[in-house]
Structures are given as C-alpha cells and as structure tokens.
Amino acid sequence: MTRHQKRLSAPNAWPVERKTATFTVKAGAGPHGEAGVPLVVLLRDVLGYVDSTKEARYALNEGSVLVNGDAVSDEQRPVGMFDILAFTEREEYYRVFPQEGGRLALTPIDAEAAGSRLGKIVGKRQVAGGATQLTLHDGENVRLEDADVDYDTKDSLVVDNDSGEIVAHFPYEEGALVTAVDGSHSGDIGRIDEITVTAGSGDNTVTVDTDDGAFETIEEYVVVIDEQFVDGEEADEASADADEAESADGGDDE
C-alpha cells in the first residue's frame, strides 16, 4: 500500500486545494475509513494554525488539541463527520460538518456543545453475555447491557466524550430533523416528509422538506441530527428580524 496521497485523487470530502501541489498527507489508520481527513490538513490547510507537518507535530505534542475529548499527538489521525475538534488554549471548538458538495467543513460551537458528539447507528448485534453492541458511522462501538434497548440502525445518538454514555437518542422516522451528508444535496437540512421502501435490492429513498422546498435522496445519505445544529442559524435570523423591526420602529418615530 502506498504511503503517498495525491491531491487530485484525495476523497471528495477532503477540504484541500487540488492543484496547488502534487501531494498531500495520507490519513493514518483510525476512524471514518478512507473518508477521514488527516488532522494536519485541518490545522494547516483549513485553519492555518501551522505551515508544515513538522509544526503540526510540535503543536500536537503540547496536548492542547483534542478530538472527541481525547488529546491527539498523531498528525495523521483521521478526523471525519461530526467529530469535535477542541483547542483548549485558544478556547475554540469546532464540529466537523458536511457542506455543499460533500466537502467537510469546521463549524464553530461553544464549549458545552463540544462535550458530546453525534453518531449514526450503522450496525446492531448481540454480543457475549446478552449485551447489545451498536456500531456508529465512525467505527466506534457502544456496548449496552440492556438487551431491550429501543435503538435501531439509521437512528442517531449523542455520546458524551468523557464518559462514553449515551445522552440523547434521535429515531430515524418521518418528521425527524436530518441533514444530507452526501450526494447533490449535501449540507441541506430539513425534516423527513416520507420514507419510501424500495422492493428488492434497490436503495430506500427519503423526501426531505426544507425552507427552500423539498428534495429526494437515498436514506444512506441522510443523518438524523439534533435541533442544536440549526439553533445558531435560527438565532441569527431572529436577531436580524429584530434589528429590522427596531429600524422600522425608529423610522416611524422620526
């Protein structure tokens, strides 16, 4: 297996410029499979905190860069969808979130939101002792001793970064708030209007209602998310509306 990664052949989700150089850093072994972005790419190419891989190593050895609550020293550690990136000395926190075109981007969040991360259930099975094991989209396994838990594949969980405990559960169902993470509607957020089960080996499809209309995609491309993912946007819109109303009132007084 090659130790090199050409920029032109890098996964579409990687936020790298394709024609500025020939090679980029190859992701190491870890979560998210081939879609995982090496941490140094985010530090160097996205945030601009370092200028080289060597500088990234020095910075990471300080122990102040956390991924999902754990200090990371490997600059090639893969980072992917819904991971939490924290810079403790800077007091900066980001969530990795898909944007238009499927490319991963860093969304600023507050310290409280950085304490947990979202995971989509992609596998569920019984293990020794009667426990239930859930496999999340990044490859992490969550073991549940209660065999009667009401969690299904395609549901989403919020997992505490410190304890590893499940703190919230969002079922995959009609009316659920979702985001598209792949395909032509990647980054769009809306609510599931209809789930269509396709007979045979074809993919099931979902129709999602958004503020700008509706779109249809396969269910593999959608992930159920928490309301906090859109709270910031709603708050900004509410603030803008309030400013417009205040301006209008001021005009009437004059």
From TrEMBL:
GO terms for molecular function: rRNA binding; structural constituent of ribosome. Residues 2-32 form the Small ribosomal subunit protein eS4 N-terminal domain. One of its GO terms (cellular component) is cytosolic small ribosomal subunit. One of its GO terms (biological process) is translation. Keywords: Ribonucleoprotein, Ribosomal protein, RNA-binding, rRNA-binding. It comes from the Archaea. Residues 91-166 form the Small ribosomal subunit protein eS4 central region domain. Residues 231-254 are annotated as: Disordered. PANTHER family: 30S/40S RIBOSOMAL PROTEIN S4, SMALL RIBOSOMAL SUBUNIT PROTEIN ES4. NCBIfam families: PRK04313.1. Belongs to the eukaryotic ribosomal protein eS4 family. This is Small ribosomal subunit protein eS4. It comes from Halobellus ruber.
